[in-house]
Structures
1.
Amino acid sequence: MASKKPDLGRITFAKNPWPKGHRIAELVWLGRIEADSVWFDLHLVSAPYDEGDRVKSDDDDDRRADWSSKGCWSNYNRCTISSTKWEGVTTGFQVGTPQDPLDFTTLGAKTFNVDTKPKGKGEKPAFHIYLLGHDAVAEHRITFTKTSKPKEYALSWKGRIRLAYIGRKKYEHRFEAIAPRLVFGGFKAARGVSAAKAKAVLAACVKNEPAARAKPRTTR
């Protein structure tokens, strides 16, 4: 008997061939302690684009733009949006400093607007995306809404996509990921941050984190 596949929510890409979107197969939410601040990392992987689809391609696929072609999407299998998969390429996003600490009791009232402005030369984005090749994502709107279970939140993550793999210059497309039950994985120290330093930064930058513990292990 085949094991049941995880269904962690849905990710949709506006006006792609699957209006109901795709199952989220992997989703990880972690906190990272840097030398003077704390950051969030997210890692999302979809199921294969054509999972459960009896019609794998359209008769007129060859005449469609890539975004509208089932055959084109299926060639790339599935989507990954991540701040952790491609080490050195992405940054995640800052969520707390000593001047503006992250308070988990008010987390649900906050929207994180990430990469809202074009990146300058040499600047790294918060996330990278593999979609129809190695593309680009920006203009993220991320919210975490508390559920009734400890450390569990509902995630809403919206953003825009640029098809960088084929040379597009504008963020012409949109995605939205909805996950009703996402468990926060806790904070870990970034590479080079000692356990003692991590503990001090966590105390200064985070309020009311359930079972808060600075861990010396590295995250990236």
2.
Amino acid sequence: MNEVRRLFGAQSGRPQDWEWQSLAACRGTETATFYHPENERGPRRERREQIAKQFCAACPVVGQCLRWALETREPYGVWGGKTVEERAKLLSQRSA
């Protein structure tokens, strides 16, 4: 994805909502790294998620990514170094 105008939210007219995506360590990476295929389970899923989290660990915008995923209740993939289940747990802790 080399064109910033194609990034999620670029059409919103609020650059602060999407600008962080252009700095993400995962930019240009195969999306399959971050989203599990149908019926993926067990060790295979854990390995893929660990690879995704390695990108996140070195990412300069991991905080903005996680914040966006939590605010929008992103239902899929690894965002901000957290899986869907890990984000759900964070959200439930916030509610408590």
3.
Amino acid sequence: MHSLSPFPSDWLVPNWPAPANVHAVCTTRAGGVSGAPWDSCNLGTHVGDVPAHVQANRAFLQSTLATKAVFMDQVHGQTMLELVPSAVTTLTASGTPVTPQADGAFTQCRGLACTVMVADCLPVLLCDTQGRMVAAVHAGWRGLAGSGGVGVLEQMLMRFNERFWPLAPVESGQAATKVIAWLGPCIGPTAFEVGDEVRAAFVESIPQAADCFTRAAPGKWRANLPALARQRLASLGVTGVHGNDSSSQWCTVGNASKFFSYRRDRVSGRQAACIWLN
């Protein structure tokens, strides 16, 4: 992890071999105006923070990105949203902006930042090696596991295939070798305790997923979310995976001064991971 101006000093700028026209950042608690317990750069509108503070924090994010961060209403589903100018200016009858419901966003348009908010779930940023498309995915365990072995990562890789390699099925891995990924901070493997049903959701489709769980108590397991994501990406042929390696510095729960964590605090703000084309 490393930081780069003009962002606050502890915001995370991915250290990965993305094309020069691909830009990305992951915010932390730093840089905003919210008071405790949302201090200080909470970007979530649904967590009880003062609305004016959230809007000021989002305005600060927009100014540092110098591009439009497009937020989604995330529901732990598998809907992937394409960002085009017309999709981010939709208004209701009363004139208020419509927040699209999705758990992943992708775009080939400059000036629009695919943005996911997290406070323990795993943000995954992706781009193709030629810098033609970028994507951001909100990967909690439900979205990552998906249904029948098809979750949010599989859904997003299908979008890359459809655009650039329609003759190479996502299962073949041919297209995925031309996609790279960055994993942001999330709940770490020493903090993420889950039940038998969560382990079963992964192991039923990929037996090797058992390696990503360690027993904590009868019927309880500690899950390694970044390792599960890396395993899914590897099964899709994505070998260029960077960022979160499951070490303690990436854990949202264990780094209270840096990251928001719903599992730790219950009343918590949200950080955001953004990726865009210039």
4.
Amino acid sequence: MLALDLVNTRDATGDHLATPEGLAAWLAGHGIEAPAGRAVRQAVHEVRAAVTEVVRALRAGEAPPQDARAALTVRRELAWDGERLTERPAPAGPGPAARVRAQLAAAAIDLLVGLDPATVHECGAPDCTRLFVPAHPRRRWCSDACGNRVRVTRYYHRHKGGGP
């Protein structure tokens, strides 16, 4: 889920989109073609902040802030893919930053509309702040790595005396 992947780019270890290299790698990893310049980085950070605010408000049972909802406004347009009409986000202005903002905002809207906040979980690992929608209702960790870390720590404490 692109929108949750975007939220999870800022976690306990830092901001993974703080550098042009980190942003370029993240964009490429999600199939988004855009230069990792200052304007694109600012657009991505603004959308990330808005999605984070909306998700956190929904999880707390509160109304999402109006400014966060406004930051995720996107127009849609019809496009021709060579065989049929498709729908895509329409950039609010010229340039790659507007295109990236529109694409990320559209992904956020797709996730958030109809989202049951109870399905979004925070990772159960003590050193992880990532959000995820579990594939299985009993899943407690965002990734196998977090789950393994918790299980290894628990095993260590059980067999080395003391602890959980």
